[in-house]
TrEMBL record:
Keywords tagged on the record: Metal-binding, Oxidoreductase, Zinc
Lineage of the species this protein comes from: Bacteria, Pseudomonadati, Pseudomonadota, Gammaproteobacteria, Cellvibrionales
Molecular function GO labels: oxidoreductase activity; zinc ion binding
Domain Enoyl reductase (ER), residue spans: 13-338
Gene3D superfamilies reported for this sequence: Medium-chain alcohol dehydrogenases, catalytic domain, NAD(P)-binding Rossmann-like Domain
Superkingdom of source: Bacteria
Protein family: Belongs to the zinc-containing alcohol dehydrogenase family. Quinone oxidoreductase subfamily.
The protein's name: Zinc-type alcohol dehydrogenase-like protein
Length: 342
């Protein structure tokens, strides 16, 4: 089967950083599905895993953690899907990724593809939808409600609203909760993107968050979902969060931060990594199957939309290197998808 893979970890401008290769077609066991991959998308995690390091793989390593495809075979213990089903998923970082014609994935982290979307539109969603859903509802514990709340309205600050996760988090928060959504964006086009997805307020994360919030009549926020440079925003988040508020980040720390800044306010800080459930085969691993199906229902009912912003074809090393470079530039809005194999 065709695949894009690596053995050495190199800068993306090196033509050997990602290579077109031919690999053996895998065979499903246990609860695995064998999926014929039709479309993929690229996330910051792809570029972080591929980033230069002193390591050489003995076998080709396939990256990629977003896919849409068709089930072509199932393991003997698989019960959730049948051959021919159209599916979408992010997969597991502990296994071969989606940058290949065929991929094995545990059915417990797979959802039925939204029926109203094309392959490219659907491929933009899985990793970011899982991350946004788990961050909002499993980590920040924001109550889901479509009814007007009798309690004082809550506020959610999403730092990095125009990226892949922010684009879906804005929509989920506006559709499924009663919070006022404040998103950050540093450029006019990214700010407009956030507004188009439902953000109530947009501020600039390159400027003082507290000053901008105060100018909007918001003294502090109940929840913060940090999707952009945890180190850089740590002090600002500690200032902007309400006493007994909740902060969740998806961006690993590069240095040390002062956790004591959260103590007097009794603020909760938590991490979100969408690979946790699959990496540790958690008891509730199947929750990703359920939430992906829920997201598909929201899409098909017109309540939220895809975050796709660009499509390239075909899926090959040259195009993937181009997308990795664009992701590394830090200016991507929404998601970039590749589709079809030559």
């Amino acid at each position: 089967m065709k695949a894009v893979a690596l053995k050495t970890y190199l800068p993306i401008n090196n033509p050997d950083s990602l290579l077109d290769v031919t690999l053996d077609k895998p065979v499903p066991t246990g609860r695995d599905l064998l999926v014929a991959v039709d479309a993929i998308s690229v996330n910051p995690v792809d570029t972080k895993v591929r980033a230069p390091k002193d390591k050489v793989e003995s076998e080709y390593r396939v990256l990629g953690w977003d896919a849409v495809g068709r089930v072509v075979a199932t393991g003997p213990e698989a019960t959730l899907f049948k051959v021919g089903d159209e599916v979408y998923y992010a997969g597991s970082i502990a296994r071969a990724g989606s940058n290949s014609e065929f991929q094995l994935v545990d059915e417990r982290i797979v959802g039925h593809k939204p029926t109203t979307l094309s392959n490219a539109q659907a491929a933009a969603l899985p990793l970011t939808a899982i991350t946004a859903w788990e961050g909002l509802f499993d980590r920040l514990l924001i109550p889901q409600s479509t009814q007007a709340s009798k309690s004082k309205p809550k506020t959610l600050l999403i730092i990095g609203g125009a990226g892949g996760v922010g684009s879906i988090a804005i929509q989920l928060a506006k559709t499924l909760t009663n919070v006022t959504v404040i998103a950050t964006a540093s450029r006019a086009e990214s700010a407009q993107w956030c507004r188009s997805l439902g953000a109530d307020v947009v501020i600039d994360h390159r400027k003082s968050l507290q000053e901008q919030l105060t100018a909007q009549g918001i003294n502090a926020v109940d929840y913060i979902f940090c999707l952009n440079n945890t180190d850089q925003h740590w002090v600002a988040m500690s200032e902007a969060i309400k006493p007994q508020g909740h902060i969740c980040s998806i961006v690993e720390l590069r240095g040390q931060v002062d956790l004591n800044l959260l103590k007097n306010k009794s603020v909760t800080f938590t991490w979100e990594l969408m690979f946790t459930r699959s990496l540790f085969e958690a008891d509730d691993m199947i929750e990703q199957h359920h939430l992906l199906n829920r997201v598909a229902d929201l899409i098909d009912s017109g309540k939220i939309i895809t975050t796709l912003n660009q499509v390239l074809s075909p899926i090959n090393a040259s195009n993937l290197r181009q997308v990795h470079a664009q992701i590394e530039s830090g200016t991507t809005i929404g998601k970039i998808v590749l589709e079809k194999w030559q």
